[in-house]
Amino acid sequence: MKVYSIGDVTKMSNISRRTLHYYNEIGLLHPAKVEGNSYRYYDDAALMKLQKIILLKSLGFTLEQIKQVFRDTGQADKENEGWIQALEEQIEWIQREKELLAWKEYLLQTTIHAIRISGKIEASEIVTLLQALQARELEDGRIRPVFPAQEYTGEELAILSRLPDLGSADPRAEQYIRLMGAIREQMDAPPDSPQAQRLAKQLYEMALSLFQGNAALLDKYWSRLVPEEGQMSAVYGHDRELMAYVDAMIGCYLQTSGVEEP
Prior knowledge:
This protein has helices at 6-13, 17-25, 44-58, 63-72, 79-118, 123-134, 154-161, 171-185, 194-210, 215-223, 240-257; strands at residues 3-5, 33-34, 40-43.
């Protein structure tokens, strides 16, 4: 039987002596023999097993999972079947982790947008928002909005379905959030002031683009964002004060620019 010293194994596998000692300690990989001077020697079977360990680690398996793979594939005639099952289970685990990470990313982005658009941290309100979102289904990194079909035409619903999700990575959402944040920061200025009118022009043109030029639908949708007294808006951060200011500045913009109101 050909054997290899621990030095040979470290060179062939690029694994450190310390790692080989640790694998031996936890019962994952034993040397073929240990001589009186405590020198460890490995045979071809041990080297083959080490390569499998390296492969599994590169695929994201933990050492405990790797030990389980070797326990489950002890019989030679079932080795391939056991490995395939273990790899399939790893894929399932990765899929679950991807879904979990996608949700975490979405909720973090939603929280960032909520703070930016409201201009403050209302922890209890944000928690309520996140809990409501988690009851919905995340699809392709976004939660698709739901609108009452009886209140909109098929064409209008198609336009609404393509609106950016404020919790997604959609660059249009980021642009809208930054614009609304800028509007909130200068609400002390009169709605007809030059700075307010510059923002009004940007907001109206962006909104009209999002609604594919359908000004009537934009007006219908926007009016329903205004919350009742003491209630939260359908879209977080669109409080009555902000909405009233935006309505005033947009009204001034439409009047002075000659754009016909819907």
